UniProtKB/TrEMBL annotation:
<dbReference type="GO" id="GO:0004300">
    <property type="term" value="F:enoyl-CoA hydratase activity"/>
</dbReference>
<protein>
    <submittedName>
        <fullName>Probable enoyl-CoA hydratase echA8</fullName>
        <ecNumber>4.2.1.17</ecNumber>
    </submittedName>
</protein>
<dbReference type="InterPro" id="IPR014748">
    <property type="entry name" value="Enoyl-CoA_hydra_C"/>
</dbReference>
<dbReference type="Pfam" id="PF00378">
    <property type="entry name" value="ECH_1"/>
</dbReference>
<keyword id="KW-0456">Lyase</keyword>
<dbReference type="InterPro" id="IPR001753">
    <property type="entry name" value="Enoyl-CoA_hydra/iso"/>
</dbReference>
<comment type="similarity">
    <text>Belongs to the enoyl-CoA hydratase/isomerase family.</text>
</comment>
<dbReference type="GO" id="GO:0006635">
    <property type="term" value="P:fatty acid beta-oxidation"/>
</dbReference>
<dbReference type="InterPro" id="IPR029045">
    <property type="entry name" value="ClpP/crotonase-like_dom_sf"/>
</dbReference>
Length: 265
């Protein structure tokens, strides 16, 4: 069985990181391909409207395999040039695939999310944490830096000063602090985590799928565009949205005081 266990629930795809005996450590050398394939399959399937990602066992993901680091094997074997290339081929493939996911991603953080695990959790568009979750980027205590793009992502999620505190001190924070800092949307009792995540995913999946994917694109692109560029992209996408059957259904449903039934047409 591979790293990602997939379960389809209507228009929602549930991914479970399934390496519980190693606290869902990432990445093994094949994990880049696993994430790329899973994301590509979702992007190619217009019937999928949302993805929920969680971890098996007591952790979301503990991040890098410390024993592999110590032994300088697998991802960490060989010359600096070889290690760099594996980061690009494996680690970067994971985060690029998740960042390029076209449908909303809900991360249901069921336990510790450390290092790469924290940054993967942070790639969720909506992040819901169990009250047993914790977060950290403890690269400094290992004598390394974020090789996964976390130094770009984390300040955008929680602001520069808080990202600096997490990175420079190498300390972890609990779920309550993560919520206060904006790293997660909300904290829920552990027992209800997946119920909460699936309820949110269901609300997302009820929206018109073409507009949903375009809306996510606008939010992602808006991080790096200036206002004029965003206005131009918004106008182009809005013109396409106005021509969909789902747009007419949405307008009709509001006028008739009922919920819209969207097909993706």
């Amino acid at each position: 069985m591979g790293l990602i266990v997939e379960e389809r629930k209507g228009a929602v795809m549930v991914w479970t990181l399934d390496r519980p005996d190693r606290l869902n450590a990432l990445p093994d050398l094949e994990d880049g391909e696993a994430f790329a394939a899973a994301c590509a399959a979702v992007n190619a399937d217009p019937s999928i409207r949302c993805v929920v990602m969680t971890g098996a066992g007591r952790a979301f993901s503990a991040g890098g395999d410390l024993k592999a680091m110590k032994d300088r094997r697998d991802l960490f074997e060989g010359s600096g040039a070889a290690i760099r290339e594996r980061y690009r081929r494996v680690v970067h493939r994971i985060v690029r695939a998740l960042y390029g996911l076209e449908v909303p991603l809900v991360t249901a953080v069921n336990g510790p999310a450390m290092g790469l695990g924290c940054d993967i959790a942070g790639l969720g568009d909506i992040r819901i944490a169990s009250d047993r979750a914790s977060f950290g980027v403890p690269f400094m205590k290992l004598g390394i830096i974020p090789g996964d793009g976390g130094s770009w992502l984390l300040p955008r999620n929680i602001g520069y000063n808080r990202a600096a505190e997490l990175l420079f001190t190498a300390r972890s924070i609990d779920a309550e602090t993560a919520e206060k800092w904006g790293l997660v949307n909300r904290v829920v009792p552990h027992e209800t985590l997946m119920d909460e995540a699936m309820e949110t995913a269901g609300q997302i999946a009820a929206q018109p799928p073409q507009a949903l994917r375009m809306a996510k694109t606008l939010l992602r692109q808006g991080r790096d565009m200036n206002f004029d560029q965003m206005l131009e992209l918004s106008a182009a996408m809005q013109a396409l949205a106005h021509l969909t059957d789902d747009h007419i259904e949405g307008v009709t449903a509001v006028l008739e005081k009922r919920s819209g039934e969207f097909t993706g047409a």
